[in-house]
Amino acid sequence: MATPLYVHGYDEQETQRLHDQADLLRELVHTDTSFPHGSLILEVGCGVGAQTALLARTNSHARIVAIDRSARSLQAAQTHAHACGLANIDLNQADVLALPFAAERFDHVFGSFLLEHLSRPLDALTSIARVMKPHGTVTLVEGDHGSVVVRPMSDAASQAIACQAGLQRRAGGDPNVGRQLSALLESAGFHDIQVTPLVMRVDGDRRHLAGSVDRTFVRMIDAVRNQAVHAGMITARAFDAGIADLRRAVHDGEFSYTFFKAHACTTDRRP
What we know:
Layout (H helix, E strand, L loop, with lengths): L11 H18 L10 E5 L5 H9 L4 E6 L2 H13 L5 E5 L12 E7 L8 H10 L1 E12 L5 E3 L3 H16 L10 H7 L3 E12 L7 H13 L2 H6 L5 H17 L1 E12 L6
Parallel strand pairs: 1-2, 1-4, 2-3, 4-5
Antiparallel strand pairs: 5-8, 6-8, 7-8
């Protein structure tokens, strides 16, 4: 089976969006992401290293082995790690479905916004479980595009958002995978599963977040414009109108999006 495409692309704008997203979600997602001294951590699907750098800074006493299938993304991750002066990161080109590591090697596995791009997320979790130590732990963060609430919501904005989700499905992914984390982890043999919804909201009391949401979520939708138009999903005029309506709602109306953070443990494999 062919590897699904990364629908967001690999250009410099996407690299910047991922770093902006990491900054936006730092307090929402990473406040309780910490590991014991001396831990060996595997990050799957590290991309340009935006989340990797956050983990490495707050867990300087741990070693992070980060993998991604894209050589271009890994080069960006290496540049970012060097610029941040982070020496506790090892970067490797690899696919989560065929991890090149010995069984029971890692104390913890971390992944963010990876499963949404995979056509075989359960196989990915099974592959992850193989390289984890008995009683090891995994932390996953995924989004859910079906959770988007925008007020006022126009037909054009709704269509533009639907284009991104539709293209991701065509590429083999699932834009709503966040709501499935518990079931997927259970099917992969994990236990002590805890899934927490984390809501990013912009309204009258949180208007200071509007610019960050514009640079992350709105930019993510806007980035698929040419693909969506070329695929015949929407006209250029309608898409542009949708982005304008979405941006207006983020800055002057209401916006919310739900992420899901899952934590689970492996079993003791001793007979």
